[in-house]
Known about the structure:
With 368 residues, the chain is an alpha+beta fold. It has eleven helices and 15 strands.
Amino acid sequence: xxxxxxxxxxxxxxxxxxxxxxxxxxxxxxxxxxxxxxxxxxxxxxxxxxxxxxxxxxxxxxxxxxxxxxxxxxxxxxxxxxxxxxxxxxxxxxxxxxxxxxxxxxxxxxxxxxxxxxxxxxxxxxxxxxxxxxxxxxxxxxxxxxxxxxxxxxxxxxxxxxxxxxxxxxxxxxxxxxxxxxxxxxxxxxxxxxxxxxxxxxxxxxxxxxxxxxxxxxxxxxxxxxxxxxxxxxxxxxxxxxxxxxxxxxxxxxxxxxxxxxxxxxxxxxxxxxxxxxxxxxxxxxxxxxxxxxxxxxxxxxxxxxxxxxxxxxxxxxxxxxxxxxxxxxxxxxxxxxxxxxxxxxxxxxxxxxxxxxxxxxxxxxxx
Length: 368
């Protein structure tokens, strides 16, 4: 790629997906040729794809395509929760079939980002604050509810989040708490069908039966589970609050506040966007600490151009912890960059287009 030639972009994604459309618009908006789109379905069916030495290769989410999901997860119904371990094995294998080009998503880092247990360990070892977890690194097996109960008792943790190791978008997440006299309550968006299969729902529900909680955890366990201490979140307007912070080429560029009356703040589960200005005011001088924490988390994955960091503010807005780092966490349509971020006036995709040359220069590597 010569110094004066415009970049040649290639995107591995689902062609009809809004993510691909938004990124294509950002490339064109920068005055560059539209990217070459390589469908995930072709990668999976044809055993890979090759890229020219001067192509900048961006990977986008393989989600929201029923056939792609069927191949990766092994189930026909896209609402099904099961199949996470199979999805992870097939997705990471597919990533390694991509050859050539300047890669903006490091394959080894993606393998960590899509395993919550290993991602937690990487962050913790780097000194990034994270909720305490007995399953960090994956050395402690969680075979079902009995193991979760034992871990809660052994670590003095009456409230935990139980997460599928390879899940996303709160799929399969169960918030468990011990109530009065040892009673168990759980909050989840998972619905159990009559045939015992598990399905994602847009409705968050409360479970008050330990037997039902145990059955749900037991059904989720074969795909691998990660257990974390329940972080006491700060509130905003009487609702629990957290943030999604997008970090591009090492800088926190975009942030959105998510609030909810349930433990899950995901917007598709009834959460709503909060007032970022109110958060900045509440955090005061600690706001810069919040952004720095996100940048430190992203620095654990230097070969990946962009990540979305889920940041948990503690009660009082004086401490922060990282819940997760998302490889495809940049879908925030219409949101422009933070003041002083270098991405003012740019959405998350335009910020990546602008930052890619610096990322390439810093990493200067192109896989064979």
